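B., you asked whether I could sanity-check this one before it goes into the benchmark set. Here's the sequence:
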Amino acid sequence: MTTKKLYRSEKDKKVAGLVGGLAEFFDIDSTVLRVLAIIGVIVTGVIPGIIAYFVALLVVPKRPEAGIKDVNKEARENVEENKKKIMESFGGGGSISNDDVQKLLGVSDATATRYLDELEKEGKLRQIGDVGVAVRYEKV
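And here's what the prediction gave me:
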């Protein structure tokens, strides 16, 4: 089970993203929460409400941005998953072409070529043919 953390919202903010962050955390409409917050400030007194807002501003952190390390890890996992799909597509044998990989994964010619080259370097595939549409790959 993943735990939810309270962050200030970057997408749904009017001042600092506190109410937007609360709305995201509790999965409710931020407009309703803003109206309730304004009513709460008026009922309890403006000064205590403003002080509470600034205390919350200091306590509730901004949402951390995904770092390049996280993005690269996800991209590498995606590549490995796609290469696994290519290997599984062989089933009982046969061969596969660059066009087959493009259709299987919905990727470009260059991406399909890169996947096939990586699998060939890893010793999992062998290229048959030299150039063009006649090139096919078979399992080693």
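One thing to flag: The chain is about 55% helix and 5% strand. Otherwise nothing jumped out at me.
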